[in-house]
Amino acid sequence: MGYLLFIVRSALEDFKRSKMQTFLTSLGIVIGVFAVIMLMALGLGLKRYISDQFEALGKNTLFVTPGQVLQGGGFGGAASVLGQRFDIKDLTNLSRVKGVVGLAPLSSKSGKAKGTVKTEYISIFFTSADFADIAGLTIDKGRFFDKTDIDKHAKVLVAGPKIAEKLFGSTINALDKRVSVDNVNFTIIGIIKSKGGGGLGGNDYDSYFFGPYTTGFIYDPQKQFIRFAIKTDPNIPLATVKAEINKVMLKRYKDDEFSLLEPTEILSVVNSIFNIMNIVLVAIASISLLVGGIGIMNIMYVTVSDKTREVGVRRALGARKNDILLQFIVESVALSIIGGALGLGLAFLGVLLVQGFFPAYIDVPSMVLALGVSSAIGIVFGVLPARKAANLEPVEAIRYE
Amino acid sequence: MIKLQNVSKSYRVDEDTIFYALKKVSLEIKETEFVSITGPSGSGKSTLMHLIGLLDKPSSGDVIIQGKKISQLSDDELSTLRNEFVGFVFQQFNLIPKLSVLENVLLPTVYARKKLNYDPEAKALELLTKFGLIEKKSSFPNKLSGGQQQRVAVLRALIMEPKLILADEPTGNLDSKSGHDIMKLLGELNRNEKITIVVVTHEADIAAYGKRVIKVKDGQVG
Hints:
The complex is a heterodimer of chains A (401) and B (222).
Chain A: H1 3-17, H2 19-55, E1 61-66, E2 70-71, E3 74-75, H3 78-81, E4 86-87, H4 88-95, E5 100-114, E6 119-127, H5 130-135, E7 139-142, H6 147-151, E8 156-159, H7 161-168, H8 171-174, E9 178-181, E10 184-192, E11 208-212, H9 213-216, E12 224-225, E13 227-232, H10 238-250, E14 258-261, H11 263-306, H12 308-316, H13 321-354, H14 364-390, H15 394-399
Parallel strand pairs in A: 6-11, 8-10
Antiparallel strand pairs in A: 1-13, 1-14, 2-3, 4-12, 5-6, 5-9, 5-13, 7-10, 8-11, 9-10
Chain B: E1 2-14, E2 17-29, E3 34-38, H1 45-52, E4 60-65, E5 68-69, H2 75-85, E6 86-89, H3 101-110, H4 120-130, H5 146-158, E7 164-168, H6 176-192, E8 196-201, H7 204-207, E9 212-217, E10 220-221
Parallel strand pairs in B: 3-8, 3-9, 6-7, 7-8
Antiparallel strand pairs in B: 1-2, 1-4, 4-5, 9-10
Helix pairs in contact in B: 3-4, 3-5, 5-6
């Protein structure tokens, strides 16, 4: 029988005989690991969800927004809040840039819409026909608006399935119906396929209306846009197109009055925000791990005093101080790893439970972290009691009643 | 084999009082001897046993074991000596409750630093067979009678093939028949295996098993 095996078995044998005590002792670690892993899973899931949304935009997408949006890795969009906007002239200029294959100006309108079933506050994105392609929208019923609609300032809208159902009971009922938004009457000419999700930071296209940008001018006499979304030619390097767009924009605006954004840049900002948030949350949850560790230390002191005589006997039989030290550290590590594994199991259950409505996700590094941290806790909080045991005088220990 | 030269062991009771458990004791135990150490309780015989068994160090004087002064040995070296050289048998058996009989017998080999020239498990099974405990090998100590537990303890003392077996009141917790059985067993080990035996006891009939009796009284050897 190997030395280590013998020592590990001694520790585990102990637990078999007092399951309840073992469970209660490791409960602190169970809760701590559960809290940390669960928070990491929620954070990670959310991050992945948002990444997926950006990745759906594709690699050859650019945004032009007013002001300095990304500055030093954070959002500093004072100018965009202050209401600086783009106009038709920018649209024309951008459409002439070589390598721009899709161009969608964006302006929006919120208002009360009256359907056959219900009246709701809704939002309309006024844009171009290219928007469907850039945002990855596909038509379920009817059609998307086209260039003719734009030229004719047609009062037509395409509806997201969710809002269509809300206002008209079902998507099929909504098609070809009239809807009035702030006293302007529109005809619904198409319904898009559900993109799902939404409500967690990404745009929930299912709840929007989309209309021709020229029609949007009804609400905006100044004819302005809040943003451009651009699809570039995949055969031309993105950087080249970007430089070209920059040059065009600089003719009318100062360097700090507009920003050119790639989804990946936005993503990295979002990621850095999430990472900081995650670290803070996990740090707070780690306090419960600390409490769990103290619980382990406490029970290990009890164990050492219970086993004083056993320590004396083992010393008499030839155990060195380090053998005793190792025995108790193995015991406390085993205790906290049991707690860690239970906590991890519980977190898996928790993730299964919330997955229906929240994109939680446990990755391999979190699992390794859970078990690594719990064994580290076992060592750190086991050392003091184990040293007490190792430093017992053999004579005193063996006489102990 | 073991020599004590002018050995004293003292404890400070309070600021001006020092209690001497042993006072300038000199004695020698030779190889293959069977020695009984006897005396009333509080006479210092337990202290003497702890010194012979390398569990304690003297306050003054020298304990010399196989030519080495134990005061010059490190804690690890003393542990190794206890492991290889001495087998302990205690009054309270002191088996580890959560280990089986076989594992208890094997325990000293777990702490062995030298390479054993035999397979520990085979040797343990052989000992258990020889001393009629093989059917109990998977039992836990609390399922055994006192006499059986003490025999397991003797086997645990034997597994490392020690030169010396040190028994501290080995019959103290046993009925008289089991007690005498254990003493006969120790006698056989002394005769057949040439193992030096030192038994500490306060009972005269148990002390009588020894070929030499060392009497301790008030911390001194008479």
